[in-house]
Amino acid sequence: MDADIIVIGASPAGVMAARNASAKGCKVILLDKKEAVGVPTHPANTFFKGMFDRTGEEVDQSYVIKNLKGAYIIAPCGKNVIFEGDAYFLNRKKFDEFYIKQAKDAGADVRFGIEVLNVLRTEGGFIVSTSKGKIKCKLVIVSDGINSRVAALMGMKPIKHTQDIAWSLEAEIEAEGIGEPDYFEYYVGNHAPGWKSTYSPCGGNRATLGMYVRRHGTDVSDFFDAWLEKFKELKGLDDVKIISKSTGGDPIVAIPGELVADGVMIVGGSAAQSGIGYGMHAGQMCGDVAADAISKGNTSKSFLFEYRKRWNAAYRTEYYLGRFAMEALRKMTDKEIDGMMEVFEGEDLKVLSGSPFNQALQVSKMILKNNPSSILSYRAIFRNK
């Protein structure tokens, strides 16, 4: 074998899986089709400390562009609630480089500019065909994004509700003083069907605007254009310069499906594990179990299922509660959202974890408190799942 484990995709989850498995003595090769770290730019570039604490890692200021104090969630009528908690706007390229260095220091062989073409089972392992040759391994970890081509090749369905991926367009913008505020702003309502629009200040004259939409196709540019005009009106801006745009998908409520098969593990966005910190934590679990499988010479599905068990114990309830909240939000009218926000306006709500996923948890608590009868729908979700 050329390696014990091949990790496909240098997402934060994939990098953590490679790092942890390498640190336990496995020979790991990490492949990514990007030519270099941070190319192209990824739209996921913010998180809260509460979210990151789940990883057990320390936030390093070397990759932080701006430290923030929390977030406002804002209703169509303008009423809002505030979530206090340390938050960060990231230089995503430096962030990725920081943790890729950790993976390399642990012994992982990291290779960029290599596309995986096929994965074939052989006796005792796999042959991974790439744009630069074939590599043999005992176990494959898949972390190649929400539209995982490799998972499809393996005949696996790692995302349960693909129709509920939130497709996004995020733009870096420039205007006088636009990056100075100390709080993120998340706007909910029917202008952003199924989720939200965002304003994330990153210091000085720079910020990002984002649009996240569910069940309206993958191209959300029209929704974004409308949001940009609304934002200019809200902030009293005559002109906003767009520096760059990036697109992507957030499987915030798509729910993990198949995570393991014989010799295969799926992690991160490929497995609907939304949020940078949550994905990294899942990657740590995945890498630890993968290393145990190699050391014991057992890469069967039943052995690898330990990874699923660990993920379930840490996150399953939260993810289903988040899905309940988002589905309730998707079906609410602007008037109903306004009414809900009025109940909570002025309350200081602490952030347990500031990922988009946990914002959904906070919204779910608001929905349940404002409308106790909806708990019946919540219970039904768990009976069926």
UniProtKB/TrEMBL annotation:
Where would one find coiled-coil regions in this protein? Answer: none
InterPro entries the UniProt entry points to: FAD/NAD-bd_sf, Geranylgeranyl_reductase
What Pfam families does this protein's entry cite? Pyr_redox_3
PANTHER family xrefs? DIGERANYLGERANYLGLYCEROPHOSPHOLIPID REDUCTASE, GERANYLGERANYL DIPHOSPHATE REDUCTASE
Instruction: Please report the name of this protein according to its UniProt entry.
Output: NAD(P)/FAD-dependent oxidoreductase
Source organism = Methanolobus vulcani
Query: From which lineage does this chain's organism come?
Result: Archaea, Methanobacteriati, Methanobacteriota, Stenosarchaea group, Methanomicrobia
